[in-house]
């Protein structure tokens, strides 16, 4: 018997066939809540809770000796987590380190790779990138004594949601020193072709780096093989590292040994760090890009989370993610197409990341109504609703329920009880 796409039974059948379905039991999910905001903050896993408690206990048990004793010695924790994360970004272990925040890591990488010379002084970015990246870029340009309106090239979007790679490549002129782009656009979920863009940049002698905040843990990467110069990302979205989790960065091995632009004692060669010499001896790995002492308790949950990712496999996660977003789009097109929604995300699987982007003039009100009904969405001003069915803890039945709730909100005009403006935090 062929089941109807619109029925709950169809969703339940998909769940029974899902090889990743058991991973949902690894996460804390409130009853009656459909969490569709994992591209902003991932949920807590039981494994992450265990590793956090274990590291907390190592402080309790060992005191200062926790730096070298216990199940997870603190002194080597950032490097160990970099090694665990490397398969997710397609890197060698020595090319990845867990340190800093997204923005501080971008400052570090630009301080290292943005070395403007006569005639080659500009940074190329795009107008749809997350604003914090643009703030950091502008800051670095000013630190070199330049004006941002002259030395920051922003590639424009033709539709307000997506970018054309060919237009980015056209903007790669002889004045560009560094390029900073997102791997996935944070609003629309569009995946940029990093291989194509990297090859084009290198043909013109330009350093290129990517912000992986919305792609790490959602799609496979091949940073080493395609020759990306640097990358940086947060770990609290798809990687479920917890609010304010320590971030990550990648530096291609061809650049290892280059002195980072910003130096701090934790970037030292580990065998020499406690010599405490006036002249620093940087590590010969991506560990050189660390600054101060690592935030051990903010690294701890990531250990448990990365264990789950390595068990599930990023290819299987991506396969399910595509199916989930396709299923959600099909249901939305069928159930609420008459209520003014349009898709701002790419429709094809190759270009679409781990979330969908619904556009509606009443988006803020609809998001508030969804939350009241148990669906956790993400509003993006002025009129966007992001919905992220995350592969490790979202079922097909969750997607079905989410769309049924959205339909009831529109049919019964429940959203009209709310003001159409965002809260302080959107």
From TrEMBL:
SUPFAM superfamilies hit by this protein: PLP-dependent transferases
Class of the enzyme per the UniProt entry, highest EC level: hydrolase
EC number in record: 3.7.1.3
Annotated Aminotransferase class I/classII large domain residues: 68-220
Gene Ontology, cellular component aspect: cytoplasm
Stored Pfam families: Aminotran_1_2, KYNU_C
Family in the record: Belongs to the kynureninase family.
The protein, known as: Kynureninase
Origin species: Ureibacillus acetophenoni
Name of the gene: kynU
């Amino acid at each position: 018997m062929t089941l109807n796409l619109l029925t709950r039974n169809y969703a339940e059948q998909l769940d029974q066939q899902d090889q990743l379905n058991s991973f949902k039991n690894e996460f804390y999910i409130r009853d009656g809540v459909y969490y569709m905001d994992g591209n902003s903050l991932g949920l807590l896993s039981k494994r992450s809770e265990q590793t956090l408690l274990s590291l907390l206990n190592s402080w309790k048990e060992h005191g200062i000796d926790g730096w070298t004793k216990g199940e997870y010695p603190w002194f080597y924790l950032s490097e160990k987590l970099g090694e665990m994360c490397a398969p997710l970004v397609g890197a060698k272990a020595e090319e990845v380190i867990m340190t800093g925040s997204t923005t501080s890591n971008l400052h570090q990488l630009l301080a290292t790779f943005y070395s403007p010379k006569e005639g080659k002084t500009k940074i190329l970015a795009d107008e749809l990138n997350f604003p914090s990246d643009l703030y950091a870029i502008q800051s670095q340009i000013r630190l070199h004594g330049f004006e941002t309106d002259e030395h920051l090239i922003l590639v424009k979007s033709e539709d307000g949601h997506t970018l054309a790679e060919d237009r980015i490549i056209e903007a790669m002129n002889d004045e560009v020193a560094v390029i900073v782009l997102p791997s996935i656009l944070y609003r629309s979920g569009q995946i940029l072709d990093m291989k194509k863009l990297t090859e084009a940049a290198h043909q013109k002698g330009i350093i290129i780096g990517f912000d992986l905040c919305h792609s790490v843990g959602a799609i496979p990467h091949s940073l080493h093989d395609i020759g990306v110069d640097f990358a940086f990302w947060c770990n609290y979205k798809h990687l479920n590292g917890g609010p304010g989790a320590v971030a990550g960065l990648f530096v291609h091995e061809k650049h290892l040994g280059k002195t980072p632009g910003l130096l701090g004692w934790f970037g030292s060669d580990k065998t020499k760090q406690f010599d405490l010499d006036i002249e620093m001896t940087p590590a010969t790995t991506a560990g050189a890009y660390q600054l101060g002492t690592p935030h051990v308790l903010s690294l701890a949950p990531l250990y448990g989370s990365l264990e789950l990712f390595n068990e599930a496999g990023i290819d299987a996660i991506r396969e399910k993610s595509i199916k989930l977003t396709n299923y959600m789009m099909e249901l939305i097109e069928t159930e609420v197409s008459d209520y003014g929604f349009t898709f701002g995300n790419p429709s094809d699987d190759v270009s679409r990341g781990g979330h969908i982007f619904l556009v509606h003039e009443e988006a803020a009100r609809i998001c508030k109504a969804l939350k009241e009904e148990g669906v956790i969405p993400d509003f993006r001003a002025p009129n966007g609703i992001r919905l992220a069915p995350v592969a490790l803890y979202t079922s097909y039945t969750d997607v079905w329920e989410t769309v049924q709730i959205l339909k009831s909100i529109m049919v019964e005009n429940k959203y009209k009880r709310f003001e159409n403006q965002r809260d302080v935090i959107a």
